């Protein structure tokens, strides 16, 4: 079946088509062309597509076509994993419904004043977009009525799973009318999400956009091999030379967002932090400043940046490499959206090379190594900016220069100096705080020689004469290959702790994907957990203050199991020995065995 080539072929309502045309949309993206006809026909949808493919329009446009604006009851409910994404989706609905008189959309999420949400719900909104926790709050209060609900959308379902919301999502689904349309969109389809789809979707139409056609093709990706403590200096050089409009810099922790933003501000860049500790009003103001060209750099954590779609974001900088390749895809998806081009830069420490390989394998793309800008390159960039400033001033401020012209002409005659000499002195004064001539010490990048060469089939071999060996590294990294350290938590069975509690707390507070949390062993008074090696000091400091079951975990490196890389036991492990996952039942005590752990 041939796909529609224009939005006019998609049976959308005239008011919606008019808004689409005014927004400059010409041709449906693959996800839109496939999903919209099914949603208009009333079918359930199971969509697998990466971020940035246009999936918001894929469900918003057809559902708006079916909205009854004369009825203020909630007819469509959209669940999103984060506040930012809830706002983004609500704004998209509003843009597409600009010609639908009487239409109202309402985002509801934690961190926003409850009284304001209660008033707006009482007035009525045909579309409600919310995070699972706040939607549950309103359903329990009775302030959100779903008796006239026609459709529910689960947006970025895999992210809701990773954040521990999947049980909440199922609870909400069970409190919706049985006769309703359901659309589930996810970048990946892990078993728990497939289970939800099988249980709650009725004969869904499956729409899948392959990663090759949905991400990365319009994003130039490069990496720099970090050496020692030179990350900040390297970042500064890149910011000096890269021609970027706006940039999002990703770090792993909330503390790092503030520290890095302050350092960038001190170096003359317009930067601000965004993280989960900021109140929602401040977060919204910060994003609005980015949209209005009042801010150039946003320093963010993965969760805080979810849902940000700002057209002028031309670059994404991975200052801290993510532990998970899917997180990387979501990060770089903040640029190059809806067909626009973008650039992504990744800092990789030598001990993090396996994470780089994992990202390349998952995205099916080679990430090219970059060289840091030299002092001469920075000097040239500053001179070009200085010349541009002079040209702009002479062109746009000419009528304001007469006083200064006469002042300097008098100075030239009185002191018998040329105009060039005066201009040189003034230029020197102007650039004292930011010298045009830059002398930078060399930053030697970390070595990645064992990154390997590719043979004729595109496979990697080892360096030198070892290229013929069938080493494991030829086959690409596995998640099990991530180096692990063992940590002790001062909570255990006596406190009613379950493995899922530990996974949820660490995943949410440290920003570590749950799949990168290794074996958890519960004892009576304490527990141990395996986490990726090289955890930043600030992350551990933050985790020490985290509570599980009303008990501080006081995490510390376990002296008995902190030998570095985790080796799988030679014996076949018991079922209870495997790494815990979100939603696991409490692990049983392992059977007694003569084998020693």
From TrEMBL:
UniProt GO MF annotations: ATP binding; hydrolase activity; RNA helicase activity; RNA strand annealing activity
GO cellular component terms given for this protein: cytosol; ribosome
UniProt KW keywords: ATP-binding, Cytoplasm, Helicase, Hydrolase, Nucleotide-binding, RNA-binding, Stress response
Pfam families in UniProt: DbpA, DEAD, DeaD_dimer, Helicase_C
UniProt entry tagged with the keyword RNA-binding: yes
InterPro entries, A to Z: CsdA_RRM, DbpA/CsdA_RNA-bd_dom, DEAD/DEAH_box_helicase_dom, DEAD/DEAH_RhlB, DEAD_box_RNA_helicases, DeaD_dimer, DEAD_helicase_DeaD, Helicase_ATP-bd
Subcellular location: Cytoplasm
Transmembrane segments: none
Domain DEAD-box RNA helicase Q: 5-33
PANTHER family to which the protein is assigned, alphabetical: ATP-DEPENDENT RNA HELICASE DEAD (PTHR47963:SF8), DEAD-BOX ATP-DEPENDENT RNA HELICASE 47, MITOCHONDRIAL (PTHR47963)
Family statement drawn from the similarity comment of this UniProt entry: Belongs to the DEAD box helicase family. DeaD/CsdA subfamily.
Function (record text): DEAD-box RNA helicase involved in various cellular processes at low temperature, including ribosome biogenesis, mRNA degradation and translation initiation.
HAMAP family, alphabetized: DEAD_helicase_DeaD
The name this protein goes by in its record: ATP-dependent RNA helicase DeaD
Organism, as annotated: Simiduia aestuariiviva
The organism's taxonomic lineage, starting at the top: Bacteria, Pseudomonadati, Pseudomonadota, Gammaproteobacteria, Cellvibrionales
Gene name of the encoded protein: deaD
């Amino acid at each position: 079946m041939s796909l529609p080539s224009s939005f006019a072929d998609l049976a959308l309502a005239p008011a919606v088509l008019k808004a689409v045309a005014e927004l400059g949309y010409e041709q449906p993206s693959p996800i839109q062309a496939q999903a919209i006809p099914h949603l208009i026909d009333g079918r359930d949808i199971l969509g697998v597509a990466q971020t940035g493919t246009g999936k918001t329009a894929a469900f918003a446009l057809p559902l708006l076509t079916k909205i009854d604006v004369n009825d203020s009851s909630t007819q469509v409910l959209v669940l999103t994993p984060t506040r930012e994404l809830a706002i983004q989706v609500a704004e998209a609905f509003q843009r597409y419904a600009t010609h639908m008189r009487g239409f109202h959309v309402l985002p509801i999420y934690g961190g926003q004043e409850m009284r304001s949400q209660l008033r707006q719900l009482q007035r009525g909104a045909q579309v409600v977009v919310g995070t699972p926790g706040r939607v549950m709050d309103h359903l329990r209060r009775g302030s959100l009525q779903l008796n006239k609900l026609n459709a529910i959308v689960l947006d970025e379902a895999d992210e809701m799973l990773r954040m521990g919301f999947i049980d909440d999502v199922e609870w909400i689904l069970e409190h919706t009318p049985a006769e309703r349309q359901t659309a589930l969109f996810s970048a990946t389809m892990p078993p728990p999400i497939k289970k939800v789809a099988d249980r709650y979707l009725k004969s869904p139409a499956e729409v899948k956009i392959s990663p090759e056609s949905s991400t990365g093709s319009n994003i130039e990706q490069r990496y720099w091999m970090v050496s020692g403590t030179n990350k900040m200096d390297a970042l500064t050089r890149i910011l000096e030379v890269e021609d970027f409009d706006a940039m999002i810099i990703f770090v792993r922790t909330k503390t790092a967002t503030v520290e890095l933003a302050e350092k960038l501000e001190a170096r003359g860049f317009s930067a601000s932090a965004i993280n989960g500790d900021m109140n929602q009003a401040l977060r919204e103001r910060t994003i609005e400043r980015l949209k209005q060209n009042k801010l150039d750099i946003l320093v963010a954590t993965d969760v805080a940046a979810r849902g940000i779609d700002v057209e002028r974001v031309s670059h994404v900088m991975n200052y801290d490499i993510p532990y998970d390749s899917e997180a990387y895809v979501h990060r770089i998806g903040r640029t190059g959206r809806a067909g626009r081009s973008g650039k992504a830069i990744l800092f990789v420490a030598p001990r993090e090379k396996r994470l780089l390989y994992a990202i390349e394998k998952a995205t099916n793309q080679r990430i090219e190594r970059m060289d840091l800008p030299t002092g001469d390159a920075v000097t040239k960039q500053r001179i070009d900016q200085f010349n541009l400033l002079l040209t702009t001033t002479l062109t746009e401020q000419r009528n304001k220069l007469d006083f200064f012209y006469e002042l300097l002409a008098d100075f030239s005659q009185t002191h018998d100096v040329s105009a060039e000499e005066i201009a040189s002195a003034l230029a020197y004064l102007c650039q004292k705080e930011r010298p045009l001539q830059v002398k930078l010490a060399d930053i030697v990048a970390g070595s990645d020689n064992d990154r390997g060469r590719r043979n004729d089939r595109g496979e990697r071999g080892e360096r030198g004469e070892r290229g013929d060996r069938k080493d494991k590294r030829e086959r690409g990294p596995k998640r099990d290959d991530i180096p692990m350290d063992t940590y002790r938590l001062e909570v255990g069975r006596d406190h009613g702790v379950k493995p899922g509690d530990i996974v949820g707390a660490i995943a949410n507070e440290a920003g570590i994907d749950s799949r990168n949390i290794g074996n958890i062993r519960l004892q009576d008074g304490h527990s141990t957990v395996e986490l990726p090696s090289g955890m930043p000091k600030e992350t551990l400091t933050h985790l020490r203050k985290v509570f599980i079951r009303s008990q501080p975990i006081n995490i510390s490196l376990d002296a008995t199991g902190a030998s570095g890389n985790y080796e799988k036991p030679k014996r076949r492990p018991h079922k209870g020995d495997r790494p815990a996952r979100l939603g696991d039942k409490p692990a049983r005590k392992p059977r007694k065995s003569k084998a020693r752990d």
